[in-house]
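re: ur question from yesterday

yeah so i grabbed the chain u mentioned. its 234 aa long if i counted rite. heres the sequnce exactly as i have it in my notes:
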Amino acid sequence: MGESERRNILGKEDGFNTRVNLFIIRHMYYHMKKAEQFMVEGEGKRKKSVDLKTYISISAHRFTRMYKGENFELTADESKTIANCFNISADYFKKEGELIPVYGITRDDWKCYFYTHYGEDVSVWLVNTPSQKEEGEKKVADCLKKIINKKYIISHYDMDAPLYRIYYFFENGIAYKGTDILNKLLEDLKLLKISNWKEFADDPEMLKEYLYLLEKHCKYLKSYLECRELEQTN
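ran it thru and got these structure tokens back, copy pasting raw so excuse formatting
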């Protein structure tokens, strides 16, 4: 058994997906609106983010080395710790692991992005023209702006999607669990006012989507309660 296998060293290719997944997590953490527990006093009145290393044990220097395509080590315990934070599979942080799905973005697009921003070699697949690299980089850059937006996440990803759960953890400070989201929904509904709906006055399509989802879940809940009552009477 080689040294890299004993120490779980991830290389340019077998560690690329993990590299992307960690990049997604770091990007969302430092760019989205987070729970207060992730913030500390900064200069003046402005708050700043707590170092992400506090939660996933990877320093900024280590991130930079990963992004440049250098070999890096990620132990089984580290993979498990990161996965448990978000209640997602540890396979996203293993050698030759899965790539966190991001709508409209391919593995090749990510390679173009890393090549453009960090100089990582993309010769392992054919890129014949500069325009191909530019197109892939732009697709990723545009998507990175979208995935830090709550409305975009809840309308494009279901609750089992890793991206949804990463957003959920940073927004709420706890890992996603089915019962947690129902409890939070109840608290949010108690606070909801008519004025909140008026914020979407210029976006009737979004209002229709909310109405559709609320009506659908009302039907689910009524059906469940009716079935439960029938079971209890028999």
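noticed a couple things. Residues 78 and 165 are 18 Å apart (CA to CA). also The mean pLDDT is 87.
anyway ttyl
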